[in-house]
Inverse folding.
């Protein structure tokens, strides 16, 4: 059995639930049913979009703009 090597830590309280909500919203937009029966490609497209949106939000925040989803 594979050992869980996930070292990612949520550093901001409440961020985990916000990211979970974002994940399911994006999955719905993409028409992806998240879960073990879904292909890695479909699940990965959701994760990639989360990253893309988080980077955009951070860039907007750093430049003084308003972040939006």
């Amino acid at each position: 059995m594979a050992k869980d090597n996930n070292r990612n830590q949520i550093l901001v309280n409440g961020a985990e639930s916000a990211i979970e909500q974002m994940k399911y919203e994006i999955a719905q937009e993409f028409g992806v049913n998240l879960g073990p029966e879904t292909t890695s490609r479909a699940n990965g497209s959701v994760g990639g979009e989360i990253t893309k949106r988080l980077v955009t939000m951070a860039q907007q925040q750093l430049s003084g703009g308003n972040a939006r989803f």
The chain is about 55% helix and 0% strand. The chain has a mean pLDDT of 87. The CA atoms of residues 42 and 50 lie 13 Å apart. Helices lie at 15-30, 40-62.
